[in-house]
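Predict structure. Chain length: 397.
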Amino acid sequence: MVIKELMRRLDQKEQRIIEIRRYLHAHPELSFEEEETAAYIEDFYQEVPVDSVETNVGGYRGIVATVQGGKPGKTIAIRADFDALPISEETDLPFASKNKGVMHACGHDGHTAYMLVLAETLAELKKDLSGAIKIIHQPAEEMPPGGAIGMIEAGVLKGVDAVFGIHVMSTMETGKIFYRSGNAQTGRARFKLTVKGKGGHGSSPHMANDAIVAASSFVMNCQTIISRRMDPFDTAVVTIGSFDGKGQFNVIKDTVTLEGDVRTMSHASRGLVEAEIQRFAEGLEASFGVETTLEYNNDYPVLYNDPEVTERVRQALIKAAIPEVEAVEETLPQPPSEDFAYYLQEKPGCFFYVGAKPAGKEWYPHHHPKFEIDEKSLLISAKAMASVVAAYCGRES
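Prediction complete.
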């Protein structure tokens, strides 16, 4: 069976996966700026017997390698992202970031490392596979509009029957794989509200129109969206992350700008929150006599895992009996958003999670300057995705 040979070869390459991950971790690049990382991935494929390699896919250095099996069958896509974050690393790792102010604080270095070695191994065994596997290396997951849209528009999913992705999770126990059927991760939006009043002296408020007071009312009203407008069995979060009201202590502010973040777990709640924020912004004009300008942008949609495909993934993972995996468990919905959701709007698929919580030391969440993963999760990720590939493209499938 091809799965056994995949596992055997991946075992032999574990240290190589780790070495690649450490190199990438030391050389992170921001979204839409991943020139050296893309070149590294392209160079890797120079010695790999894949059937084709496309570069600059989507216009932002995306890369797609294709492995064509020895017999006809399904075509699947597997994706890994490779961008980093504008965060100054605070770990004491010997392979810590060498690029000031930039860090792989989300695990995309690990995603790329396991995917490269898995792609190589699949190419070595392609005569024993059926159908085709598209290996998608995607830039710019972290920054809207994200890299997925451009790659989809470039046709990476053309002819694809199903699409799959993995995220290593520092918040989940190493040695476990987690899945979620249906709505699995939140959709996201961001907004910017400018409130313009009339400036004045603090001693004479009647001669001014305080933008801070009006904007503060908006902040408090937004908190009622979740508590008084949402279905209690639905989920959403509204966060005001920026309130630009700084000025002189005795001067009434003329203009205030707010910026906020919205996360929703259904398309219905997404529309509701947007409508309520719009209503509250317009209401300030009537209530306070100010002028408002609202910019509201929905970006990453709710990530929806096809139930039938997700069940097949679960069964494949259990059947594979990966020695390093002690359990395959259902997880609660995940609060962060993920641009893999765009692929899942186009094709059925599943995005699942590999536990990567460091053992024996304090762990930190994603996007933290001390973020780290247990490197045992890298081989587990490679074997987990290999199990899914074998389930769809193995000769016995």
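Summary: The two ends are 10 Å apart (CA to CA).
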